[in-house]
Structure formats: structure tokens, C-alpha cells
Ubiquinone biosynthesis UbiH/UbiF/VisC/COQ6 family hydroxylase (Variovorax soli), 406 residues
Amino acid sequence: MQNGRDVLIVGAGPAGLALAIALVDAGFSATVLDAQPREALANPAEDGRDIALTHASVATLRALGLWRRLLPEEIGRIREARVIDGDRQDSPLRFDAQGHGADALGWIVPNHALRRVSFEAAEERADLHLIDGAQALRVLTSDAHAELEYGAFPGAPDHLRARLLVGADSRFSWTRRQLGIAADLHDFGRTMIVCRMRHDMPHDDVAYECFGYERTLAVLPAVGRSSSIVVTTDAASAARLMALPDAAFAAMVERQFRGRLGRMALLGKRFPYPLVATYARRFAALRGALIGDAAVGMHPVTAHGYNLGLQSVASLTHALRAARLANQDIGDAGVLAGYERTHRRDSALVYHGTNAVAKLYASTSASQRFARRLILRGAEHLPPLKAAITARLVGRGGLEPPGAPV
Ligand SMILES: Cc1cc2nc3c(=O)[nH]c(=O)nc-3n(C[C@H](O)[C@H](O)[C@H](O)COP(=O)(O)OP(=O)(O)OC[C@H]3O[C@@H](n4cnc5c(N)ncnc54)[C@H](O)[C@@H]3O)c2cc1C
């Protein structure tokens, strides 16, 4: 039996690696296990996702030493966001950071770049042990420790033991099931197609969310004259859009976007993502906890999945640091219950609110269209609501430095 040390994390995705780095920097030892081979983790393939990041997330990425590893051409900036309803030309709802002491609402970075820099930073930590190409097979938890049986191929199953086991293995988490934690799943019956496009005209760092009646189009500013394109529609239409030749797909986007960016052309492939949101009923179990998408798998329309993932990293790290200071066991039920409370408070409203928005905007009925218009107009004319949404994007927070008082 190998010793998995303080914390054993299943899943070396961006959330699992961020937690491992944060814990090691805080003086814990951590082992991360992933089914993918080292080569795939070190050089992640493009997956079409561009991740919009809040100020708090960027503060966490800086604290972990990830932000400085990103290349300048990987960081887009969002100065302003506009929401457009139906066939209208104008934008009834706009957000910017003015009056919030910031010059940007957020940033936008490709998911594969976040994965790459997370792996690079993890490799540099001597107390961070990474086991790649390993399939997790069985979890056993007891009052004394958590144990994981895994198969690193080729060879017989191996075992790891730690004081705490953390599931960071995506929204369909295997670890979650092994810990006996139920989850609520919502299948939207819709698919999101993501890709990059270049265009003739500058985007001026403005992000657009265009709620059309058959499909939703988001255009997010990347570096230079290129944007991240997100088309959401029902599964059958998505299959048709995926089958279109590149030029016909580009023409469809250009048309729906009413030529605001001039001529548009695809850069690379399109990637389809069926939309299923998940919310774990508990974020903690006996000597176990969930973070990232394994805890909360968001609908991407409000761009909060990874932002919440980093929040779960900051909250769990804080709870474990506080436990150590109080000479408590880091796998203690009371310690994990504290993490559970914090992350539920941070995630419940945004999860259910996002699902409500996603359902409202997927509907084509006349009453729902009317409701959408009212909501957009209402939000524009309700300064406290707009301010609250903007504050969530530009607000301070994130991972506290290892030496900070707990
Ligand atoms: C189209 C799209 C757009 C998005 N846009 C945004 C955005 O703008 N802003 C934002 O904040 N978020 C966004 N997200 C969400 C964001 O991508 C996710 O929240 C984030 O990638 C989840 O990271 P994770 O580490 O929790 O999980 P994952 O990235 O899914 O990683 C899980 C890891 O676990 C490993 N694994 C799985 N099962 C096992 C097992 N049994 N044994 C061992 N290893 C295992 C996998 O190999 C993988 O490496 C978007 C998502 C999508 C789909």
C-alpha cells in the first residue's frame, strides 16, 4: 500500500490540479490521479472551450503561479458585455466595469491553455505526486482514512491511502458515486457548438450574448480580430449545423450577428457539447469531498463553471488550513461540513439562477418572449441588480496566500 499522503485527488483537470497546487503551497502533501496519459495532460488537445474568468479567479490563478505562464496571445479581455433579445438590433442590457474600480469585466482564456499551465505548475512542486494513465477502481473510506484502488496499466491494481479523498473528476464524477453522494442532473436537450472565428472588424473587447428565438449566439472577444463563438440550439439543429461546410456555418453566424464584425471565417474545428447540468446533493462525505464540476456542473451560458471550481478550491484550502491550525484532522466531519456550507452558499443561487435563464431563453413561446423582454428591460432599469451582477464579475476574492491569517 502506497501512502497517498494528506490528500488524494481523483482528476487532474483544471480544478483538481489547482487544488493540488494550492494545498502543496499551503504545506500539505497531495497525490493526483488521472486516467489520461502524461503526454495528454502535459499537451492538452484543443477542445474549443474559451473560459471567461472573473477578477477573483484571476487572483487565484496569479496566487497559484498559473497566470504568468499563459502566453499574451492566450489572454483576451472583456471590457463590456451586451445582451440582445430576439431580432432586435439594439442592446437593451449592457454591463461594464465603470464605477467598480476596474477597467475590465473579465478575461477569456482557452481551456486547453489553462490545463497546460496547471500541469506545468504541478510538475514543479516536489510535494505534488501525479499518477497518470490510471483508472480509479474502488473507494473505501473509514473513520481512520480514505483508500483508493486503482489500475495503472499494465499491472495489477494498486492502492493509495490518505486522510482525505477529493473527487475532481468531472460532472459525471465516478468518485461522487463511490462516496455514495447523489446528484441532481438536468438535461437541457440542447447542444452548444463552440469554435473560434476571425473577422474583418475589431470587436473592441465587447462580448455579446444574442438570444435568438431558435438559437442563442455568444460572441466573446479573443486576442486580435478573432472571437470565441458559442451557438446553442436543440440537438437536432446542432447536428445539422455541425454537418454544414465551414463557409456555410460562418455565413450563418455572420447573418445572426447582423454583420457587426464584418466578414467572418472559421479558425479550426467546431466542437459540440450536449448540455447537462449537475448539482451534487452533498459536497462532503466520510473522509471525502467534491470540487470543480464534480460538485457543481454548470450550464455554460453564464460562464461560471470553472470560476465556481476555483472558488471550491479556495474554500476547501481555507477549511483545511483552519483545521490544521486548530490541530484538527483534515478529514474530520466538522471540517468538511464547513467547506460544504461555504460552497453551497457560493453556488446554489448561481446554479439555479443559470438554469432558470437557460430554460427561459430556450423557449420560443410568445409569453416567454414577452417575459424575456421584460426581464432584460427590468434589469437595465434596476441599477442594484446590474450592480450586483457586475460585482460578481469584478469583485475581489479568490485564494488567500499561504501565509494569510485563517
Ligand atoms: C462549452 C463550454 C464552455 C464553458 N465556458 C466556461 C466559461 O466561460 N467560464 C467558466 O468558468 N467555465 C466554463 N465552462 C466550464 C469549465 O470548462 C469547467 O467547469 C471546467 O473545465 C471543469 O474542470 P474540472 O477540473 O472540474 O473537470 P474536467 O475538466 O472535466 O476534468 C476532469 C478530469 O478528471 C479525469 N477523470 C475523469 N474520470 C476519472 C476517473 N474515473 N479516474 C481518473 N481520472 C478521471 C479526466 O481525465 C479529467 O482530466 C465551460 C464548459 C463548456 C462545456
